[in-house]
Design a protein that fits this description.
This protein has about 210 residues and is of the alpha+beta class. It folds into two domains: about 50 residues; about 140 residues, no CATH class. It is built from eleven helices and eight strands. Strands 1-3-2 form a three-stranded antiparallel sheet, with helices on both faces. It is elongated.
Length: about 210
């Protein structure tokens, strides 16, 4: 019986390793979409040339992950999600929060993702809200959607019952002192997310 493995397996493995050097993280589904056999991933892991980072995710062994590797992992596994709130504050270096979960905004009607690692904390938003203040950045070769600093601070007030008003106030003060956003940008998002009335006295206090 002929072997089920592709005859040019070395060529496939070479392509996968080249892709891994470029993208840092590989999804099994992306490998299949390129017409490459996913069994090559298994062979490379067994040979010690790749490592299984998480379910369905692979990377080069010994490669130093960036500080925000968990955001890249979640972005690959939840394409419709946007990094928000405490995780976005951490990414933008605003405040002192160091969340052990990845805070992720997802569409209202999308089922919550089932991910064991890294841990995630989900908040729901409308499609319009998810499109406001969106910034795309690359982390370990992966395009990661993150809300910009002004939108993130506004969301902290919008979801203050989840994260605490003290966290929102710290984010506002620290973001303003570090010039992470402009006043008109902050007011724009506060108005769009319907928390301008709540934020007004705090904004006036730091800009007086």
């Amino acid at each position: 019986m002929p072997s089920a493995l592709p005859a040019d397996k070395n060529g496939h493995e070479h392509q996968l390793l080249r892709l891994a050097r470029k993208r840092k993280l590989l999804r099994a589904r992306d490998v299949a979409a390129r017409g490459l056999p996913t069994i090559a991933l298994t062979r490379l892991v067994q040979a010690g040339k790749l490592e299984r980072v998480a379910r369905g995710l692979y990377g080069l062994p010994g490669a130093a992950p960036s500080e925000h590797r968990s955001l890249a992992e979640v972005a690959l596994r939840v394409p419709k999600g946007v990094v928000c709130l405490l995780s976005a504050l951490r990414f933008h270096e605003i405040g002192t929060q160091a969340p052990f979960e990845v805070w992720l905004a997802i569409p209202n009607r999308v089922a919550p993702p089932r991910i064991e690692k890294p841990a995630i904390r989900v908040v729901r938003m409308s499609d319009d809200a998810l499109a406001e203040g969106l910034r795309r950045t690359r982390i370990d070769g992966v395009e990661v959607p993150v809300f910009n600093p002004a939108r993130t601070v506004v969301d902290c007030f919008r979801f203050r019952n989840k994260i605490g008003l003290d966290v929102a106030l710290e984010a506002l003060r620290d973001g303003w002192s570090k010039r992470k956003f402009k006043l008109d940008e902050l007011w724009h998002h506060a108005t769009r997310q319907r928390v301008a009335t709540v934020m007004r006295p705090y904004i006036e206090a730091i800009t007086a």
